[in-house]
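From: lab user (bench 3)
To: helpdesk
Subject: output format question, protein + CGF

Hello, I'm new to running complex predictions and I'm not sure whether the block I got back is the full result or only part of it. Here's what I submitted:
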Amino acid sequence: MLMDKDEFKTIFVNNLQTMFGKGIEEASINNKYMALSRVIRDCISKNWMETNKQYSETGVKQVYYFSMEFLLGKALDMHLVNGGVKEIYREALEEIGIDLEELEKQESDPGLGNGGLGRLAACFMESMAAVGIPGHGCGIRYTYGLFEQKIVDHNQVELPDNWLQDGYAWEFRKADKAVEVKFGGTIKSNQQGGRWVFTHENYEAVLAVPYDVPIAGYHNKTVNTLRLWNAESLHDSFDFASFNRGEYLEAKEYRSSVGLISKILYPQDNFYEGRLLRLKQQYFFVSAGLQSIIRRYKKKHTSMKQLSKKVAVHINDTHPAIAVPELMRLLMDQEGLSWDDAWKITTETISYTNHTIMPEALETWPVEMFKSLLPRMYMIVHEINERVCRSFWDAYPGDWERIRGMAVIADNMVHMARLAVVGSHSVNGVAQIHTDILKEHIMSSFHNFYPKKFNNKTNGITHRRWLLKANPELAAIITDCIGANWITDPQNLDEFERFATDKVIQEKVQKVKHKNKKALAKYIKEKTGVTVDTRSIFDVHIKRIHSYKRQILNIFHIMDLYNRLKENPSLSITPRTFIFAGKAAPGYYIAKQTIKLISVLASLINKDKDIKGKLKVIFLENYSVSLGELLFPAADVSEQISTASKEASGTGNMKFMLNGAVTIGTLDGANVEIHEAVGDDNIFIFGLTSQQVFDYYIHGGYNAWQLYSSDIRLKTVLEQLVNGFLPYQKEEFRPLYNSLLADNDEFFVLRDFDAYAKAQVELDKRYKQKNKWTEMSIHNIAQAGIFSSDRTICEYANEIWHTKPVVITKP
Ligand code: CGF
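Helpdesk reply: Thanks, we reran it on our side. This is the complete output you should expect:
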């Protein structure tokens, strides 16, 4: 990065002239943002070229992280922080009358992901570059990211997220590196010189064009690559031949169907919808990615047999599981390897992460659909299935039921998770409890057959984005106390523990929290018109809206508090601001109802003078990475209240603790490890354990009606959903009511209500002791180091990918 202020100014002004033909006075804010991005891009580019050169010269093993989602967040500020130039550039810009923050607002937030899974991929990219692991991403350059959420008349409305509208400053189109991906058609096979040759005929070809995004490390020279593939027509932009033949309309149709592949991100999280276009997207980016990896590998190597020594391909959930047959195809059909050699290389190269046990998220494709879209893939999957079933049979002779539950093709469906397990050398869960559930329940047969494949890699988050960048003043306090080592070695954060009872530091931490709360309160006022009390507890529940995440449990507690305050306005509670944000999948009715309920409730409570401002409820629209950067630093309480066993890990829980919020949560996902890290005194744990949940599911015995009849608080709030208490149509929330009573409350909201309410009372009591609370808060910050994605990524590198960090030296 340029460290000299004057040099920076000269280049910046020069960029304005060469890019837009304008001087500072005439240039728009967006022009200035683009010119600043160009300064940074140019600096990064030098290191980027050097990184690639050194990777190639040293022949170090490369990791490719395949993911359908990369939820990146804004890049400009992160580059300034990572490059250590933020203050210099801020001052330099100020001297020429430009406000850096205004420029930062120009950047759009690329929403190329739904939630945890996509954000995890982005954190991993950042950590790999920071730690120096030669790791690259491979995904899709969606024209439209996750929809923009608006709340209109209490309803979620989805608007297209046209994030590329003004161009994306950080991408580099590499047209010369495009590859072809083939769909449909037929496969002809014939024997040539003693081996089978497969030819693909009458297929539809699509051009996959990569757009590379540089991912720079922190204070180092590593710049890795995130390669996002764009689908384009193979035809010229205007096909004269077809125009002359009168077929131009057809060609136009072809182009639009091709364009569709990378047009939209499917807006579902933890839910699978078997759409043909989705399968097309999966094969499109996987085939393109693998082709480009092999092309690069072949520049340096003549034999494919060393592939797994030089390349690791990681698949983020089952979405890229088609990598297994596609790598087999490339190795056999293109490189001429035998089945056995290709299988050995494929399984040694590929590793897989499972992110959920929710049955509705498990991908399976109807055989007919799979076969007609991807005929060669089907042939290979069929053969894989035959072979693995034979080995299962040898291990479990006669146990048809078990083998049916492990077969890659069963009941006329292709099972992608099973394909991923058999075709990889490592299968990991994302938190200890999740991995245990995989091993003991969901994938127990596979675990029994391949015990060594299964391992745990607890998720992590990048503390540089979520603390250093999002909460710079807290970061500065920490650095003053323990030095700056924690930025590169996050485990060192535990040295901050010593300051937990230090009154001076406590006061500083409190001041920063209050300042962050004020900033959030200002945003809330601007967006919703509601004034919130910054001395109240900021209780924050932000994540996708999903029944298993139990926003409803939180809402019932709020309704009960409200009822009690109405009965007794002088009830002694610490004023609370309940803040929600999150998107519901457009077709997920109950989730959309949940948003509506929060919004309706907010309008009722926020204007009720009787309760003397003791409660406020806020729903913030359009939750995104950027909004998260405002919310996490301002939170006092982190709501992590999913039904135990359902949340594989969660990563928001880690962002909250890193910013000093205290968790109220169930023993689910990574909450279990957070609890272990901070100890009983610094977290509020309540509710059923995952074992108890499993027991209910297996042995029955849960009766929601009984709880409804025996707990007056529950009876009241449930009736309030349907008796006209809420200022909306009486029947509006009937489906929600029915899901909890008629359908016997699948996620045990009523069962956990009492325990949750008690934990909230305890929390309220503790918050009243200001210094005690801050002490808890500091414990949380100090123990957050193990939840850094630097730790996670090093575990992947050592135990799965078998690759090492590389120090990129000066050119
Ligand atoms: O992956 C999730 C998230 N919803 O994206 N799952 N998927 N699929 C899990 O539900 C989270 O618990 C997990 O933290 C995240 C990343 O592993």
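A quick orientation on your result: Residues 115-117, 120, 269-270, 317, 355-356, 361, 430, 459, 647-651, 669 surround CGF (CB under 6 Å). Let us know if anything else is unclear.
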